[in-house]
Every structure is written in structure tokens, then in C-alpha cells.
Design goal:
This protein has a domain at about 25-65. The protein has helices at about 5-20, 45-55; strands spanning about 25-30, 35-45. It contains two helices and two strands, in the order αββα. The chain starts with a helix and ends in a 14-residue tail after the last helix. Helices cover about 35% and strands about 20% of the residues. The protein is of the alpha+beta class. Strands 1-2 form a two-stranded antiparallel ribbon.
């Protein structure tokens, strides 16, 4: 079975991000039946604000609302 080009691209991106941002924890979820692929980014306190600022105007404005804890 050949590797999915999108999965390879995600792995490459995470590898590069880990070089500059070692405090971010990445989790990749592949849904069954070739469903969506989700990348979750978490980390130390303050990381959410950092990520929202980094992705502002790129994807942060299109993310679903965060579930209340």
C-alpha cells in the first residue's frame, strides 16, 4: 500500500514545526473509511494564544468553536 501524499506532507510539516517550536505537541487522527485527517496541536500554558496568533488570517478564523471545559 502506497503512502498517502497528504499524510506524508503532514508528517513533513510537523517535522519542520518541531524544529522551531519544540513546546508544541502534535496529534494526528485519521478517521476510518478515508474520512477527514485532523491535526491537533497542544502544549504548555499559553500555547493556544500563540497558535491562534500564528494562524490568524490563515486558518484560525475557520476553526470550529472550542468546546467549553
Amino acid at each position: 500500500m502506497a503512502a498517502s501524499p497528504i499524510a506524508v506532507a503532514i508528517a513533513a510539516w510537523i517535522t519542520l514545526e518541531r524544529l522551531c517550536c519544540p513546546s508544541i505537541t502534535f496529534t494526528v487522527e485519521f478517521e476510518n473509511q478515508r474520512g477527514p485527517i485532523a491535526v491537533r496541536m497542544t502544549g504548555q500554558p499559553g500555547i493556544e494564544q500563540f497558535l491562534l496568533a500564528e494562524f490568524k488570517g490563515k486558518i484560525a478564523d475557520r476553526l470550529p468553536p472550542r468546546a467549553s471545559s
